[in-house]
């Protein structure tokens, strides 16, 4: 379970913002992720009207897809550009308001009210601000978090989950000595120690 040279790698918020500014977003999937479609039943578990969380959401098309099914979607992303592009790409009207508990943060919410996207660091969120979730779609978050912050990230995610929530996690498997990340390599043993 050696994560090799990645252990000390740190990407700053500025570097992520720059990826969006330069359009260097190979991680964005225009058609949505096939694994979410494949494992949707696991996430929903026969339930409707869920609150589903998208950590480090970017402009994930699945947010609209799940909202159209009648679920409430909440996302968080440092790039305001990504969030604005999400609403523009789907021709969704939205309003914007500050988040009083978080200095400088904004919430962009669809006029229909079922998609709320927070523009801030994920570490600024808490269940007192965003509530708790019935489901989490973590497609590119854990693998994007700096390896030194994984424990902090997992601890936060656990506090945001309802008792019977489902957590779908996508990771990538490769030799971490051959690629510096992100996406970072997260061995299965570490996932088990993080989430139990």
UniProtKB/TrEMBL annotation:
It is an enzyme of class 2 (transferase). InterPro entries: SAM-dependent_MTases_sf (IPR029063), Thiopurine_S-MeTrfase (IPR025835), TPMT (IPR008854). Keywords: Cytoplasm, Methyltransferase, S-adenosyl-L-methionine, Transferase. Pfam families: TPMT. It comes from the Eukaryota. One of its GO terms (molecular function) is thiopurine S-methyltransferase activity. This is thiopurine S-methyltransferase. It comes from Galbula dea. The gene is Tpmt.
